[in-house]
Amino acid sequence: PVKKKKARSPRRSRSGSRHRSKKDKKKDRSRSRDRKEKKEKKKVVAKGQGTTTFKVYLDPRSTCSRKVLLALTEKDLKFDLEVVDLAKNEQKSEANLARHPFGKVPVIEVINKGRTRPLFESVAICHYLSSFNSGENLSPEDGWI
Asked: Which pTM value belongs to this model?
């Protein structure tokens, strides 16, 4: 009679975890590296400054406005600056209320291909700006920090 070989189950250590061969570990590392490279390529292709221009409405004394200014300069983006004086209550003017329904600063208008979109709330603006231009991201990848 011909003996059938038993299918070998993976070896296990005393703690019960599975041993992996060096080849398997190498494959996993190359797969994760490939995923990271694809992600970086998509990011650069998906968004870039190109024809996008920014018009920023802010008061430099506001800490939230400073955060947006810092993000714009860190990413080396070109923008037009309009000062909205909070001391004179200019944020409650009709023109500013048309940009931001709550009459706050900062507000950034993204002008791309003839379309103008307002963005407000400094965290959302910084998150949006962090994807522009290649280089360092302004926010962490996993979002848990």
From this structure: 0.60
Query: How much is the CA Rg of the chain, to the nearest whole Å?
Result: 26
One-letter amino acid of 111 = I
Q: Which residues pair with 116 in a beta bridge?
A: 111
What is the predicted pLDDT for the residue at 43? 44
3-state secondary structure the chain: CCCCCCCCCCCECCCCCECCCHHHHHHHHHHHHHHHHHHHHHHHHHCCCCCCEEEEEECCCCHHHHHHHHHHHHCCCCEEEEECCCCCCHHHCHHHHHHCCCCCCCEEEEEECCEEEEEECHHHHHHHHCCCCCCCCCCCCCCCC
